[in-house]
């Protein structure tokens, strides 16, 4: 199976380093201390122009919750238009209704306006009422929703391991979107989580950074350890 390592990056320099170290894909964000918001136009442009690996760009106008007004939806659309003008089509996005179900109306509008989007549905998925029902909903949009970033509804992947196993089972049954485990992954637990879940996509943040800090670059040693576990 083709294992995929995705890492969080904040700028061109980090994206280049991630590519050089062997990451398969990057998630580009700003304001990581708030869980990640939409990066600036200039940052997006620089990253897309300087790496060859896929770049998934966070589309998130605020960090308060995952409910969006019509005005906020217009901002979201303008940001995606800007990405498409730069030659990109990959985004990280998630929208919920106030009852914590998937906002299908918003997703439908988005895919009507941007039919070529390659989307990661982000950890808004960890706040839904039923992950099984939410997965079934998102599977209807698998042409665009390619993967779901989740820790199994818990604070981290170790706590959510049993649910991640169930979700990967659903992925196999419904034939996508892919489940991408993320939150709390490190070189110390990735082998266990990979084997237990049978998943193929894994998302890393500060665990592959020097001193586990987003203020510093990637740790070559930690990235190599993680890749060693994933690719063997």
Overview of the molecule:
It contains eight helices and eight strands; from the N terminus they run E-H-E-H-E-H-E-H-E-H-E-H-E-H-E-H. It has 232 residues and is of the alpha/beta class. The protein starts with a strand and ends with a helix. Helix 1 runs parallel beside helix 2 and helix 5 runs parallel beside helix 6. Helices cover 38% and strands 16% of the residues. It has an eight-stranded parallel β-barrel, surrounded by four helices.
Please outline the helices and strands.
Layout: E1 4-9, H1 12-21, E2 25-28, H2 41-50, E3 55-58, H3 70-85, E4 90-93, H4 104-113, E5 118-121, H5 131-139, E6 145-150, H6 161-174, E7 178-182, H7 190-197, E8 201-204, H8 220-231
Parallel strand pairs: 1-2, 1-8, 2-3, 3-4, 4-5, 5-6, 6-7, 7-8
Provide a concise account of the structure shown.
The chain is of the alpha/beta class and 232 residues long.
Rg, nearest Å? 17 Å
What would the average pLDDT be, to the nearest integer?
Answer: 97
Number of strands: 8
What is the distance, rounded to the nearest whole angstrom, between the alpha carbons of the first and last residues?
10 Å
Outline the low-pLDDT stretches: none
Major sheet size, sense and barrel closure:
8 strands, parallel, barrel
Helix content: 25-40%
Instruction: Give the amount of beta strand, in percent.
Output: 15-25%
Structural category is alpha/beta
Q: Secondary-structure element order, as H and E?
A: EHEHEHEHEHEHEHEH
Shape: globular
Write out the strand line-up for the largest beta sheet, numbering strands in chain order: 1-2-3-4-5-6-7-8
Number of helices: 8
């Amino acid at each position: 199976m083709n294992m995929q390592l995705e890492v969080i990056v904040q700028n061109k320099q980090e994206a280049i380093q991630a590519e050089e170290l062997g990451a398969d894909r990057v998630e580009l964000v700003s304001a990581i201390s708030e869980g990640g918001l939409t990066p600036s136009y200039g940052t997006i442009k620089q990253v897309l122009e300087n790496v060859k690996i896929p770049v998934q760009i966070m589309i998130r106008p605020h960090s308060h919750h995952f409910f969006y007004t019509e005005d906020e939806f217009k901002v979201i659309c303008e940001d995606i238009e800007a990405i498409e003008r730069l030659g990109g089509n990959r985004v990280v996005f998630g929208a919920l209704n106030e009852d914590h179900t998937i906002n299908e109306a918003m997703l439908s509008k988005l895919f009507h306006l941007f039919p070529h989007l390659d989307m990661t549905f982000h950890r808004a998925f960890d706040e839904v009422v039923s992950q099984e029902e939410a997965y079934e909903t998102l599977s209807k949009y698998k042409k665009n929703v390619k993967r779901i970033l989740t820790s199994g509804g818990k604070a981290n992947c170790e706590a959510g391991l049993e649910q991640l196993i169930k979700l990967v089972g659903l992925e196999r049954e419904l034939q996508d979107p892919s489940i991408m485990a993320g939150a709390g992954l490190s070189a110390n637990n990735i082998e266990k989580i990979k084997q237990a879940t049978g998943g193929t996509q894994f998302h890393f943040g500060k665990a592959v950074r020097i001193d586990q800090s987003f203020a510093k670059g990637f740790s070559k040693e930690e990235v190599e350890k993680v890749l060693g576990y994933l690719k063997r």
